[in-house]
Amino acid sequence: MATEPEAPGPARRTPPAQASRNETAAHPLRTAVGPAAGRTVPSPSGRGLPTRTGDSSPEWLEPAMAANGIGSFDWDIRRDVLVGDQRACTILGLVGQVFDRTSASFLALLHPEDAPVVRRRVERAVAELGQCGAYYRTVFPNGELHAVRFRGRVLADAFGRPSRMVGFVWDATVELHKRERADEQALLREERSRFIKEAARALSEAVTVRDVARVFTELPLPGLGPDGLALASLEAGRIALLGSSGYHSGLSDQFDRIQLAPTHPAAEAIRQRAPIFVSSREEYRERYPAAWDWAEESGRSSWAFLPLVASGRPTGICVVSFDDARELDADERTLLSTLGGLVAQSLARARLHDAEHELAAGLQRVMLPRTVPAVPGVSTAVRYLAAGSGLQIGGDWYDVVPLPGGHVGLVIGDVQGHDVHAAGIMGQLRIALRAYAAEGHPPAAVMARASRFLADLDTDHFATCTYAEVNVDYGVVYAVRAGHLDPVVRRADGTAHPVPVSGGLPLGVDPDEEYRVTRFSLDPGETVVLCTDGLVEARDMDLDTGFARLCATVSGELPGVDESPREPLEELADRIATQASDSEREDDIALLLLRWDGPAGGRAAQQLRRRIGQADLARISELRGELRDALRRWGVPDLIDTAELLSSELVTNAIRHTDRDAMFTARLYQEPGRQQEQGRARLRVEVEDESDLWPTRRTPGEQASSGRGLMLVEALADTWGVEPRGSGKRMWFELSS
């Protein structure tokens, strides 16, 4: 290689430090060049670089450099000219190229990440008259990425100024490939480590067996790219396919619920509790000839059978398959084995979860009524929504109880707690309350007896409850509340609002608690909504907000009974339940809806019949309210005041002066009239008792507090009388409109 002539010396002597600064300013080398950054061009002679001192290289150096593939270079710092021998040009990829031999041109050929490093190291060596070395990447004209290492030393002139850098270069492409492969392996290991973490997180979030199967079949295996995934559980020697991907449905169905042959590799993996890897079809046919038909039909060429072992017991098998023959390395086998362990633990947990929830669901189904009895005159709809977490079983319940006289009782309640114990107490309380109501006891007595029953159980639990007796004939509701929520009523005009009900302590808190009854009326088509607190109260929603949202939902537009193929009440129940499902529920929800459809034919029944307990004086007030509603519905409101007064007198006399219950009956008769004219209405009220003592008309004094009942009846009734009735008597009066 031809040598470059030595740069002429300075015309005058300059101090070394000043000369160094001048050189730095005169040449851009200090800010843009590195020693090995200079690509050199071969000289015509092909000889090595000449030295500035004129000394020749030792004879043994050239063969040593040639044997090791080392080239030399010489960089004239002042003139910014790079020259090198043939090997250096080959290593640097400059053979056959047009190159101006400047350092700036060479820097443009370096990898953008490496050029600044090379430049800084060379600048430091020039400034310190020292040595430097670097590793950098460069792209050859054919597009190949190569790597080069160099080592150079800065030489000074006679005045101590940096003049030349001489050194060696050698090819480091093999090292580059090793680094690339190491980087790829490190990246792959990082991806696999991240995959294991993500798979562990996804599997830990999988709640049910179906969730585990879905997560497993959707997992991306980094660096493997399987063509088929299958997950199966082992049940009594048979495999139950839980999920698969990469297989057509016919093949999956064919191998679901089949006996696992002992010669199958999956069976061997389960027996040995260790993974089985098959790298080719030939290996499969040789090792497992009896099971070759399955492998051949699957169309795969290599497999990994991963046993699922949890708590020392095999629970299933994972199958990972590939379309091509593949010999998995140690890292890949470790990855698959780790994945199998994660799936096994997750599947065992999910199976336990499913079993617990199936048990809980069965228990809840037993505790709650299977069907709601049909009662003429009303329509009902019920819903039960389990909490979003836990065993999905608790103490919430609802019930619909047919009552004597064709009426119906509504029960909604919630036992404290959210576990099997609460569910057991709920079942006992539900049965007891249903029995009390079915016996015909008034609502206050039903609630009081239920409270004593729960207190006698001595469980340290209490329960909230609302019980409502609905008079199907007149749409009158008698509600009792024990620490529970008020009912919500949807009116005929579509509006909805809570109805305040007098409340008492929750059941079981005070066995002697007496509950008050609140009475309200329904018009035909109006609906009562009873629910537990899980519907209207949550961590992020207070009670007022929950009730407002419930009322808005209930008041939404609904089709008429004859306008929709589906019962509108069921649609309303679904609407409420759907709203409750929009958020994560922390508590169970019981929901009970009743719509009073009105009497048959759209006209109220013309009879009111009630039994009044001998010691139940409060029932008289309720009876007066029922009578008022009945007369209003019968179309004789002008008789209300008189009938209410006289009925109260007769019933009071019956229960005060006898030691038995009284039976009250009111009937309305329509007297025949002329054509197209309605006849006069006649009301007959009867009070029966079992006493042989007949009433005696008295003349009380001015200061007397009693004795005027028969005088009022005689003065206000159109007609009245007393009739014997077997054992007892019947007092009656009639009023005409």
TrEMBL record:
<dbReference type="InterPro" id="IPR001932">
    <property type="entry name" value="PPM-type_phosphatase-like_dom"/>
</dbReference>
<dbReference type="InterPro" id="IPR003594">
    <property type="entry name" value="HATPase_dom"/>
</dbReference>
<dbReference type="InterPro" id="IPR052016">
    <property type="entry name" value="Bact_Sigma-Reg"/>
</dbReference>
<protein>
    <submittedName>
        <fullName>SpoIIE family protein phosphatase</fullName>
    </submittedName>
</protein>
<dbReference type="InterPro" id="IPR029016">
    <property type="entry name" value="GAF-like_dom_sf"/>
</dbReference>
<feature type="region of interest" description="Disordered">
    <location>
        <begin position="1"/>
        <end position="60"/>
    </location>
</feature>
<dbReference type="InterPro" id="IPR000014">
    <property type="entry name" value="PAS"/>
</dbReference>
<dbReference type="InterPro" id="IPR036890">
    <property type="entry name" value="HATPase_C_sf"/>
</dbReference>
<dbReference type="InterPro" id="IPR035965">
    <property type="entry name" value="PAS-like_dom_sf"/>
</dbReference>
<feature type="domain" description="PPM-type phosphatase">
    <location>
        <begin position="378"/>
        <end position="596"/>
    </location>
</feature>
<dbReference type="Pfam" id="PF08447">
    <property type="entry name" value="PAS_3"/>
</dbReference>
<dbReference type="InterPro" id="IPR003018">
    <property type="entry name" value="GAF"/>
</dbReference>
<dbReference type="InterPro" id="IPR036457">
    <property type="entry name" value="PPM-type-like_dom_sf"/>
</dbReference>
<dbReference type="Pfam" id="PF07228">
    <property type="entry name" value="SpoIIE"/>
</dbReference>
<dbReference type="Pfam" id="PF13581">
    <property type="entry name" value="HATPase_c_2"/>
</dbReference>
<keyword id="KW-0378">Hydrolase</keyword>
<dbReference type="InterPro" id="IPR013655">
    <property type="entry name" value="PAS_fold_3"/>
</dbReference>
<dbReference type="Pfam" id="PF13185">
    <property type="entry name" value="GAF_2"/>
</dbReference>
